[in-house]
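Weekly modeling sync, notes
Attendees: S.R. (lead), two postdocs, one rotation student

Agenda item 3: backlog of single-chain predictions. S.R. asked that every request posted to the team notebook include the full sequence so nobody has to chase files. The rotation student volunteered to paste the first one in as an example of the format we agreed on. Action items at the bottom.

Example entry:
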Amino acid sequence: MPNYDYRCEECEHLFEVFQKMSDAKLEQCPQDDCDGTVKRLLGTGAGVIFKGSGFYQTDYRSDSYKKGASKETKPAKTEGSKA
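Predicted structure, as returned to the notebook:
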């Protein structure tokens, strides 16, 4: 459930409310001495956060891609390297 920011149009009180997306918007200021109407503000939202190293690289690659990548990372053999 997201948090929504509201601002009273009369007293300019800013507050945040934890609501379901299907809940109705608030209309009245929660301040005791104010009966002003409130307006829901646009927020940036949380977005998607990927944590950890290699989330995409290791979790969703096909077997053929992994085989090809392992060939690229193996060191090349040198011929005739006798000391």
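Discussion: group reviewed the output briefly. The two ends are 69 Å apart (CA to CA).
Action items: rotation student to repeat for the remaining queue; S.R. to check formatting next week.
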